[in-house]
Specification:
about 180 residues; alpha+beta; Aminopeptidase; 8-stranded mixed sheet; binds coenzyme A; Acyl_CoA_acyltransferase; GNAT_dom; N-acetyltransferase
């Protein structure tokens, strides 16, 4: 298995993976929603504001993750939010998700990204360095439906401190339903 950055040439496989995995995990509607989110992210996001990583095994895309930029109006740190994240249903539980996320975080850190955020299950994401944060310390772009799923980590030697100001995500992520 090999990990790659940049979706170019694999866009359709990556979006299909997101649609299928979420349909199988959470139902047809969620599959459609997350499939569309991945297409919107790839189509609408400036290249400097999106990092896509994926895993290939025997010519097939078996996992994919996306990080998109978040901007805070009183803090100039370089911040990216992770999501969506998907591992092919038949390949879950093999460690692929954790390995691909770790690969992505390391690549972002090397590129100078200072903070990674995500919004998901703390039990899973704590395995790749994420810790709970509050909306007071790090504003979310929309009021969170599940504040306990708001997570962050520093990608530098300095521990994560409060990020000042209100936040803005990329256009594709700018729908309350994702938060
Ligand atoms: C969640 C997901 C990305 C994890 O990837 P994965 O490759 O299956 O996970 P890994 O093999 O690296 O890690 C497995 C461990 O994480 C745990 N884990 C996996 N999914 C989990 C979840 N949704 N919540 C909590 N723990 C989870 C497993 O129990 C396992 O723990 P164990 O080693 O003690 O048995 C993958 O299962 C998936 O794509 N699920 C459907 C889509 C989804 O929920 N995406 C994330 C949205 S936030």
């Amino acid at each position: 298995m090999k990990f790659f950055e940049n979706a170019s040439g694999r866009e359709s496989d990556i979006c299909k993976l997101f649609g299928n995995v979420f349909a199988e995990a959470e139902g047809a509607e969620e599959g459609k929603l997350i499939g569309q989110l991945s297409r919107d992210l790839l189509r609408e996001t400036a290249s400097g504001d999106l990092h896509t990583f994926y895993a290939i095994d025997k010519e097939n895309v078996v996992a994919a993750i996306m990080f998109s930029r978040m901007v805070f109006n009183q803090d100039d740190r370089d911040v990216f939010v992770l999501g969506p994240v998907a591992v092919a249903t038949a390949r879950q539980g093999e460690g692929i998700g954790q390995s691909l996320i770790s690969f992505g975080l390391k690549t972002l850190a090397q590129a100078g990204v200072e903070v990674a955020l995500t919004y998901g299950d703390p039990k899973f994401y704590s395995r790749v360095g994420f810790k709970p944060i509050t909306e007071e310390d790090v504003a979310a772009p929309f009021k969170l439906q599940y504040p306990f799923g708001w997570l962050g980590q520093s990608l530098t030697a300095t521990p994560l401190t409060s990020i000042k100001g209100s936040s803005r995500c990329v256009t594709a992520m700018g729908k309350p339903i994702y938060w």
